[in-house]
Design brief:
Length: 422
């Protein structure tokens, strides 16, 4: 009978993998335990591929939930920042002040603040604004047509329960009128109204919903969770007219203009930045959120705030091309065709439909250009370094060029050439 191999020796045999020794030891133990020492190298490779790395998105889904939604620059200098120091007075400052006022300026709000993500923004707003005492105390009126699940387990009624707010359902699934809200407010049952954008679904047919302008006539604050983070429907950061696929998308600036007291949106959807949640609108309401104890639990760190600040500056300078999401979303088909022509000529150049994704803009497609190769090559492309994520349709692999940075074309072309040559 042969001795079991030494854990340490086995671990060291894969030192070239670059994985830290403690992780190699863990994998070695597992391989020995599973009597699978022969496949140790594969196990190590698999472990390595479970780490977070940069990937090339060839899916044509611009905000791919599995790929971190908006593309993000991830390199920051290893330095201190004036996160909570006022350089003016030398005293303690607020991490929210500077970024918040820049975002507010970009959408014409009095005030704004940043939290961890959209879900925590909803939680904080409800906890801070719907917790009052009295009979209407914590009642929040929401249309039955907006009792939604956004994805990843974010269900409006559950979040509401967690916040301590009491859900006051009004109207019906397909039709809700101003009078439904009026009843809830005037009877003293609700002290806040919340409208939630139908980000990822559509109710069609015999429908009626209440406009923001109508809701704004109510005597309680109105909060709009617009979800996607489109800042302004006029898209002043883009050259030319707003893209037609944005037509039905609510925008932060216009929602406030129509009378919402607060808007809530995500940082990594159409805003095109890091994972964050943004709360913007009336100064007094934002201050109430800032001062609530939960604000501390959902506050963002300096990496996120730097990313959000950088993106906000691009909006204020009207430089949409500095935001990867908008750059990719608005590339012309002609420029995509030009790039496709530089790929190996055995690949078929096809027209495709890219999508915004990220639980935004259901049914919207953006014409795009892709490369098609017979057979399912998803595994091989994922094993590439860097990994390339493609999709399969009718037993052919399709790589969509809209979501691939032009500087990655040579990498993708080389990987596809290798498949052609195989
Ligand atoms: C996406 C979305 C959320 C959740 O935001 P996260 O940033 O993903 O936490 C909440 N409400 C709406 C309407 C959304 O579209």
């Amino acid at each position: 009978m042969s001795h079991p191999p030494s854990v340490d020796r086995l671990a060291r045999s894969q030192r070239a993998s670059g994985l830290p020794h403690p992780l190699l030891v863990e994998e070695a133990r597992r391989a020995i335990e599973a009597d699978d020492v022969d496949h140790f190298a594969d196990r190590v490779a698999q472990r390595k591929r479970s780490m977070l790395v940069s990937v090339i998105n060839g899916t044509g889904v611009l905000l791919h939930t599995n790929l971190g939604r908006a593309p993000l620059a991830a390199s920051f200098d290893e330095t201190y920042s004036n996160l909570e120091l006022s350089l003016e007075s030398g005293k303690r400052g607020s991490r929210q002040a500077a970024v918040g006022s820049s975002i507010a300026a970009a959408i014409g709000a009095e005030s704004a603040m940043v939290v961890n993500n959209g879900a925590s923004a909803v939680l904080l707003v409800l906890a801070a604004l719907a917790a009052g005492s009295g009979p209407a105390g914590n009642g929040v009126a929401v249309s039955r047509g907006e009792m939604v699940e956004i994805g990843g387990g974010f269900r409006v009624p559950d979040v509401m329960a967690q916040s301590g707010a009491r859900l006051v359902e009004v109207g019906t699934t397909n039709r809700t009128r101003l009078s439904d809200f009026q009843q809830a407010v005037e009877s003293g049952d609700a002290s806040l109204v919340m409208s939630i954008h139908q980000s990822n679904y559509k109710i069609v047919g015999f429908t009626e919903s209440t406009s923001m302008a109508e809701l704004a006539t109510l005597e309680v604050p109105v909060v709009a969770d617009i979800g996607s983070g489109l800042l302004d429907s006029a898209t002043p950061w883009l050259e030319g007219a707003p893209p037609s696929w944005l037509a039905d998308e609510p925008a932060a600036r216009q929602t406030l203009e129509q009378g919402a007291n607060l808007v809530i949106f995500s940082g990594d959807k159409l805003f095109g930045s890091a994972q964050a949640g943004i709360i913007a609108g009336d100064e007094a309401l934002v201050a109430q959120c800032r001062q609530h104890p939960l604000a501390r639990a959902v506050r963002p760190g300096s990496l996120v705030l730097q990313a959000i600040q950088k993106t906000t500056m691009s909006y204020l300078e009207r430089k949409g091309n500095d935001i990867a999401f908008w750059r990719m979303a608005t590339l012309s088909e002609a420029s995509l065709r030009e790039r496709a022509a530089a790929y190996p000529e055995q690949l078929e150049i096809i027209t495709t439909q890219a999508v915004p994704g990220g639980g935004t803009l259901p049914q919207v497609t953006i014409p795009s250009i892709g490369l098609r190769l017979a057979g399912d090559h998803l595994d091989a492309l994922r094993a590439n370094e860097p990994p390339i994520i493609a999709r399969v349709e009718d037993n052919a692999t399709i790589v969509d060029l809209r979501t691939i940075a032009p500087e990655h074309d040579t990498i993708v072309a080389a990987a596809l050439r290798a498949l052609l040559d195989a």
